[in-house]
Design brief:
Elements (H helix, E strand, L loop, with lengths): L2 H9 L4 H4 L8 H19 L22 H20 L8 H30 L6 H15 L8 H24 L8 H14 L1 H4 L5 H28 L7 H6 L1 H6 L9
């Protein structure tokens, strides 16, 4: 209710970033890396889950697997479908032939970028031995986030490549957070912050009306502002109401501790 309207006002509606030549069609930075920067601030203040990392940082003490791979997959497919409206709707018009064609191109590029993210994440994780389906799903999100800054201008091949780089960023971004002992439960920071930054900086590759300098200005100013303000908000909540579960709730799960019902009975 506060942070999003401020940064969006810098661009959409003729703000100072729009005047500087910054371009972000549907919000790779204004929406996605904004959320990712806020999440990073929260994850840093919250700290990792109990037992997530060893003292040496070599790896998790015990597995922290997703509860249900099918549910994760369904969730990603719902997001994937919704992205057609997210990107296509940002054309804001469909009453003319040119607008209808533009929306169609946006649909195609959005879908291809997601496919590129999936394939790239599959290929990269396969190099380590086994294809990681969770990273493939996160790769789809990374590809979608990356193309969101400019889904109209790229050719189909360019859209696949932009999404593919987004998928690769998700995989290695996850490894980076792991090495820094930052516990991102669902991989939101690599998929939204890192892939969002890439997609925004990649706009000049396909849109000749933009410049790398203007894109970099927008990325740095928006993410720095959001991170600092979010850090303050998280700090105030931590000092007052608290932001962490009890040890019992962390170990047993909020399903058991709050409702007395086991939501997931899945074991590896």
């Amino acid at each position: 209710g506060v942070i999003y309207p401020i940064v969006m006002g810098w661009q959409w509606g003729g703000g100072w970033l729009a005047a500087a030549g910054f371009s972000d069609f549907a919000g790779s930075t204004l929406v996605h890396s904004t959320g990712g920067a806020a999440a990073l601030a929260g994850a840093l203040l919250l700290g990792p889950r109990l037992g997530r990392f060893t003292k040496s940082g070599a790896g998790p003490v015990k597995p922290f697997a997703a509860s249900s791979i099918p549910l994760v997959t369904v969730g990603v497919f719902i997001l994937w479908l919704g992205w057609f409206g997210f990107n296509g709707g940002s054309q804001l018009a469909m009453g003319s032939f040119d607008d209808a064609v533009a929306v169609s191109n946006i649909f195609i590029n959005t879908n291809l970028a997601a496919c590129g993210g999936v394939l790239a994440a599959a290929a990269v994780t396969r190099l380590s031995g086994k294809t990681d389906v969770i990273q493939m799903l996160n790769g789809a999100i990374g590809g979608l986030v990356a193309i969101t800054a400019e889904p109209l201008m790229p050719s189909p091949i360019a859209a696949i490549l932009i999404g593919g780089v987004g998928g690769i960023i998700v995989v290695y971004g996850t490894k980076l957070l792991f090495s820094l002992k930052i516990d991102d439960v669902v991989g939101a920071i690599p998929a939204h912050l890192f892939a969002g930054i890439w997609g925004t900086l990649a706009v000049p590759i396909t849109n000749p009306d933009t410049t790398f300098g203007a894109q970099l200005l927008g990325v740095v100013s928006i993410n720095a502002f959001v991170f600092v303000v979010s850090l303050i908000v998280w700090s105030v909540m931590k000092a007052t109401m608290g932001i962490r579960l009890s040890k019992e709730a962390e170990m047993k799960g909020t399903d058991v501790s709050e409702t007395g019902v086991i939501a997931y009975a899945i074991r590896d």
